[in-house]
Write a structure and sequence with these properties.
By secondary structure, the protein is mainly alpha-helical. It contains 5 helices and no strands. Among the domains are: 69 residues; 35 residues, no CATH class. The protein is elongated and about 60 Å long.
Length: 155
C-alpha cells in the first residue's frame, strides 16, 4: 500500500463519519439554536424534571419537619432534661427546615433560569457549566471556579 493511501485511510479513521455521541447530553447541532445556553431541549427537560422532583421532595420534607417540630413541645414531659432534649430536637428540626428552604429557593431560581434560557451557564463568567456539576447540583448557578472564588469571598 502506498504511503499516501495509508495516510488517507488513517485520517478517515480519525474523523468519524457519524457522531458517536447522541446530542441528548452533549453539544449537538440543535443546541446552538438556543439563545443563552448550548443545551438542547431534551437535556433541559431532563434537568427541569430532576429539579421538579427534588422540589417536591423538599416540600414534603419541610412540611413533615415543621409538623414534627410543632409536636415536639406537645409531649407532656415534666422532667427538665426531657424538655431540654425536646427543645434541642425542635431547634435541630427547624434548622434543617431552613437549609431545605434555602435549597428550595435555589431550585426555584434554577427553574426560572430554564424558562429564560439562562440555565447551564455560569452567572459570573458566562462559561457553560460542566455536566458533572449539573448532575450533582442541578440548581448550581456558578461554575466550580467561580463557586470557589465566591466561597473565599473573592466575588
Amino acid at each position: 500500500m502506498s504511503a499516501s493511501k495509508e495516510q488517507s485511510e488513517r485520517s478517515n479513521l480519525d474523523t468519524p463519519k457519524e457522531q458517536v455521541y447522541t446530542t441528548e447530553f452533549l453539544d449537538g447541532p440543535e443546541s446552538r439554536q438556543r439563545g443563552g445556553t448550548s443545551m438542547d431541549k431534551k437535556r433541559l427537560e431532563y434537568y427541569k424534571k430532576k429539579l421538579a422532583v427534588r422540589r417536591e421532595e423538599l416540600m414534603k420534607t419541610i412540611a413533615r419537619t415543621q409538623e414534627e417540630g410543632r409536636t415536639a413541645d406537645e409531649d407532656p414531659t415534666v422532667d427538665l432534661a426531657d424538655k431540654a432534649a425536646n427543645s434541642y430536637t425542635k431547634e435541630f428540626l427547624f434548622g434543617m427546615t431552613n437549609t431545605d428552604r434555602t435549597i428550595l429557593n435555589m431550585i426555584d431560581a434554577a427553574l426560572k433560569r430554564i424558562n429564560t434560557d439562562e440555565y447551564g451557564v455560569c452567572a459570573n463568567c458566562q462559561e457553560e457549566l460542566q455536566q458533572k456539576r449539573l448532575e450533582a447540583v442541578p440548581w448550581a448557578k456558578h461554575c466550580i471556579t467561580c463557586q470557589e472564588k465566591m466561597e473565599q469571598g473573592l466575588l
